[in-house]
Design brief:
This protein is α/β, with parallel strands linked by helices. 40% of the residues lie in helices and 21% in strands.
Length: 582
């Protein structure tokens, strides 16, 4: 008789109450049995933590679906096997792996375990000797000629999470077939049975080599050379790393680039696993901003800059009519792209120069690129796609300008993953450039909208916790796929793009057209008669369904203020309708 998932989960959990699991883990799991907490046992032990979007991410705790020392060891063993068996001809084990970690609870422990497992399996490790921002890892991978990089971080997620992000030798996040090669091996391994080599012994034998001041200095040099386009630096900056890893490299970069008037939020300056009392070190969230905005008002700052917990994302606020306006991810991307293109020599404004954004980011990106005569490409959501596309096109002799996604991730220069340090430096220079010209950054944003059309975006999401929640979320998307709405907020739906089926569907005629430029993904987009758009997809890192919305007024040459207000009203109505769909 086939056992139920609940029965298999209990058997798995019972194994975790015994050796070789450590005392704390055994006690934590035993408490679940003592309290007869069957739902938690099912959620924690009814499956495994699978190797997914460039690695692992999950809530920390005991269990096969959780982030803990045992799931980290499994992932590390799987990577070692992959390097040894599939990439021996590339001297993968000898080239080694760069390893970094952020300030989250258990990050240093997980990095130690990763180094010990890799070393025991014959893989050389370059281990940072301190807490570091994520962008240092892909930078060092390329600088050292390493085969891969691993960063222990959960980026901007709530503090109960941790994660394990993997990069390849081009500095981009891993994609197929590497991800599936690692995942298939990890699924065959059992927690608690992974060999390791004590870290101190691995250091003595040369299997683990420490990285520190020199590597960070090389990174800062690259940041400054990549970000300084106009050499303007007279600007007053308020900066916060949100209690994460950003301050050491950000402050060094500001100083080396000549920015002297920088004020950091003292309570959020130093790395803190509690992120200075914030629930999540995420500049997308309004609850992360009060202290930075209070300091900005006191100092009369020209720009407020934030990094997320591992400094690969950013947030920006600018002064508008005596207050500070927190910019959206697409607005930041538009400002950065516009500035880069304005500074780009006219000889490079051609189809060989290109910018990238994700499928859920603003169509304004395409309009700006077309306006400057450069090439534009969209990819699936995530820098694992954008970074590798950029690398492929550069290898063909093209000129990479910029890539971004609406979730506050941006990159340019030779980086192949989002980089919050080069991004804040570029924005600081943009603020100084505007100040020198007698403009505000708000003026530049208005200039962009008046030139390329007003684009306003928003987002909504719903969490679906546990196994039952996951099934419910799948059902929502399946129902919308089989029964797409004819209208949303009273506006006719004229086209549906279904990336899982790789097709566009004309809602009037029913005609279907293949989508060939994007890989398959569980994502639906609805395009409305008034140029509005909505996209839905499950998150790749959290148990939630995400929606992205946008409205457009393509001709903003007249009645700019009135059109902007009308669009704001329209997107609010669309958002209300979409929330009911989730």
């Amino acid at each position: 008789m086939t056992k139920t998932r609940a029965e298999l989960a209990r058997e798995n959990a019972l194994r975790w109450t015994q050796l070789p699991f450590d005392d704390a883990t055994r006690a934590e799991v035993q408490a679940l049995f003592d309290n007869k907490d069957d739902e938690t046992i099912l959620n924690r032990f009814g499956d495994s933590l699978h190797f997914g979007t460039a690695g692992l991410r999950g809530v920390m705790g005991a269990g096969s679906t959780m982030m803990n020392r045992y799931t980290v060891a499994k992932a590390s063993k799987a990577i070692a096997q992959c390097l040894r068996e599939d990439y021996a001809q590339q001297n993968a084990c000898e080239r080694g792996v760069v390893l970094g970690y952020d300030c989250r609870h258990n990050s240093e422990l997980f990095a130690k375990i990763t180094a010990e497992v890799l070393a025991a399996n014959g893989v050389k490790v370059y281990l940072y000797d301190r807490i570091t921002p994520t962008p240092l890892v892909p930078f060092a991978v390329k600088a050292k000629g390493a085969i891969a990089g691993i960063m222990i971080t959960s980026s901007h997620n709530p503090k109960v999470y941790n994660g394990y992000k993997v990069f390849w030798d081009n500095g981009a996040q891993i994609v197929a077939p590497i991800d599936s090669q690692i995942a298939s091996r990890m699924d065959k391994l059992q927690e608690g049975a992974i060999e390791s080599l004590e870290l101190e012994e691995a250091k003595r034998s040369g299997k683990v080599v420490l990285l520190g001041e020199q590597s960070i200095a090389e990174y800062v040099d690259w940041v400054v050379k990549s970000s300084v386009l106009s050499k303007h630096s007279d600007v007053k900056i308020v900066y916060t790393p949100l209690g994460g890893t950003g301050w050491e490299t950000a402050s060094a970069s500001f100083k080396q680039a000549g920015f002297k008037d920088v004020h950091v939020v003292a309570e959020e300056r130093d790395p803190d696993p509690e992120f200075a009392g914030l629930d999540a070190p995420n500049p997308e969230r309004l609850d992360t901003w009060p202290r930075a905005l209070a300091l900005a008002k006191a100092k009369k700052a020209d720009i407020v800059l934030a990094n997320d917990g591992d400094a690969d994302r950013i947030g920006v606020a600018i002064p508008v009519d005596g207050e500070y306006k927190i910019l959206g991810g697409n607005q930041i991307g538009a400002l950065m792209l516009y500035y880069i293109l304005e500074q780009l020599p006219k000889s490079l404004r051609n189809e060989k120069s290109f910018a990238i954004c994700s499928v859920v980011s603003s169509p304004l990106t395409r309009a700006i690129c077309e306006g400057f005569g450069v090439s534009f490409q969209e990819t699936l959501t995530g820098f694992k796609w954008m970074g590798n596309v950029a690398d492929e096109r550069v290898a063909k002799g093209e000129n990479f300008l910029f890539a971004y996604e609406e979730a506050f991730g941006y990159t340019f220069s030779s980086a192949r993953d989002k980089d919050g340090i080069i991004s804040i430096l570029l924005l600081a220079e943009l603020a100084a450039y505007c100040k020198a010209k007698g403009q505000s950054m708000g003026d530049v944003l208005d200039e962009i909208y008046q030139r390329f059309g007003i684009h306003i975006e928003d987002a909504a999401e719903r969490f679906y916790e546990g196994f039952s929640g996951q099934e419910t979320m799948k059902g929502v998307l399946a129902n919308l796929r089989s029964n797409p709405p004819k209208s949303i907020a009273g506006i006719e739906v004229v086209r549906v793009r279904d990336l899982l089926q790789s097709q566009n569907i004309d809602m009037k005629s029913g005609a279907k057209e293949a989508v060939t430029h994007l890989p398959k993904q569980d994502m639906l987009s609805f395009y409305l008669a008034d140029d509005s758009w909505i996209s839905l997809r499950p998150s790749g890192t959290e148990p939630k369904l995400k929606s992205y919305l946008g409205v457009i007024a393509r001709d903003a040459s007249a009645d700019y203020v009135a059109k902007t207000r009308a669009l704001e009203d329209r997107i609010a109505k669309i958002k209300d309708a979409v929330v009911k769909m989730l």
